[in-house]
Amino acid sequence: MEIEAASASYGGGGDVENGVQRFNGGDRVPAFLVWEDLTVVLPKNGTTRRLLSGLTGYAEPGRIMAIMGPSGSGKSTLLDCLAGRLSRNVVMTGNILLNGKKRRLGYGVVAYVTQDDILLGTLTVRETITYSAYLRLPSTMSKEEVQDIVEGTIMEMGLQECSDRLIGNWHLRGISGGEKKRVSIALEILTRPNLLFLDEPTSGLDSASAFFVIQTLRNVARDGRTVVSSIHQPSSEVFALFDDLFLLSGGESIYFGEAKRAVQEFPTPSDPLTNLATVQIKGMLIEKYRRSEYAAKARARVRELSTIQTHEVETKTGSQAGWWMQLSTLIRRSSLNMSRDVGYYWLRLIIYILVSFGVGTIYFDVGTSYTAILARGACGAFISGFMTFMSIGGFPSFIEEMKGIMMMTAGFFRLLDDLPKPFWRYPVSYISYGAWALQGAYKNDLLGLEFDPMVPGDPKLKGLPSSLFSRSRRELRRGFGLSTQREIFTVSASGLRSGKGRLFLP
């Protein structure tokens, strides 16, 4: 294949006046993204693996760019690099400029849509977008203003027909895969970001759904946003919707330019472009691209955009919602999710109760022998592992929301002491813990001492003033080497059996 020169214009989709670009959706500060000589390496066992090598390109507002290449070519790595989501164990060199300035792409500027849709299946489309809006938008906005933004986003993404339908999960029938992807995109554009990155948005979709998703992204780009998406083997109809193409192979560039120029080179470009970027001819394609006028034009445009003078893109420090708004929104969302998801939350509650009765029965009065040590240890390990695995169900959505800085960590995690006792202590805790731990502690620990886990300080002798306990504590330490600090593991690790004067381990 002979790569020929292209004389296409690389302008955006609007008119620029005084640093503000006018698009179909109104005035918007343009976001010109430039990356130059971008290299990413992964140090491993004293050696380095090169993930990206000397990539140069740009993305302009009003246009949608496709990043293509075979599996392992570096598409997702390039997206993560441009969006500032690279892991800490990789090293990046080169320049990434936004409107001619090197800066961190923060919240409010960049939105990132992952390949997997992390959504709560028990909520409707409108509820999902509404709760996300309350977690992202400023708390100073009125309810009417938030609802206007939600309805506008639903219309922009073409979700009117399914707005009142459930998202759906493994046991609830919901919307289609293409509609779920558009909901994921809607959640990211609520804050009206300037840059939108998508990691293979058409993965797992049929051709019709994929076309509608990319058509929606094209409309988003025409509204003045800069849209960059990785995509794998699109159909010819889907490929025709892209304005620009960045073709990778083995982390190196083999084509960068307008997508329609690639159409002229290949009758059906989507499959051949990906298949040509193989090891056999990769070196030839890389060398041809470096000598072509495509590369020269790209470098010239990069130099031009690196010195562009425009208004500063507004950057926010994090979620604009207050702490109380985040907490109250999450409580409402979680309560609604629990009330609807019979197959998950209510089944889990039944499992908790049954397991509590089972543990309380099996480990009832295990005694104080040597084998009781193993029994108590096994009980603790089982409960810890069981509670850990049963509590991670909400973590996937939380992790994605944290990456998008939808909410603070404090808005998600609540300590048990911060919740009312009827919600956690009396229904579940005493069923199991009271059966094996409290009875065993009464028999095996210092009989006559009272340990109140809710009251700080040292344990107290039953029926005696607290002033007399300091002398008893010194005698216990001197005579038996016992520690009486108020810590459940320390207290339960040693004890005296009443009436026999012998030291027992639990």
TrEMBL record:
A biological process term (GO) from this entry: response to salt stress
Q: Where are the transmembrane segments?
A: 342-364, 370-399
Record keywords, A-Z: ATP-binding, Membrane, Nucleotide-binding, Phosphoprotein, Transmembrane, Transmembrane helix, Transport
Q: Which InterPro entries match?
A: AAA+_ATPase, ABC2_TM, ABC_transporter-like_ATP-bd, ABC_transporter-like_CS, P-loop_NTPase, Plant_ABCG
Q: Which residues form the ABC transporter domain?
A: 33-275
Keyword Transport belongs to the record: yes
Q: What topology does the record note for this protein and the membrane? A: Multi-pass membrane protein
Query: What Gene Ontology terms describe where this protein resides (cellular component)?
Result: membrane
Keyword Lipoprotein, does the record have it? no
Under Pfam families, the record lists: ABC2_membrane, ABC_tran
Subcellular location(s) per record:
Membrane
Molecular functions per Gene Ontology: ABC-type transporter activity; ATP binding; ATP hydrolysis activity
Q: Tell me, in one coarse class, where this protein mainly resides.
A: membrane
What's this protein's family per the entry?
Answer: Belongs to the ABC transporter superfamily. ABCG family. Eye pigment precursor importer (TC 3.A.1.204) subfamily.
What name does the UniProt record give this protein? ABC transporter domain-containing protein
Which organism does this sequence originate in? Answer: Rhododendron griersonianum
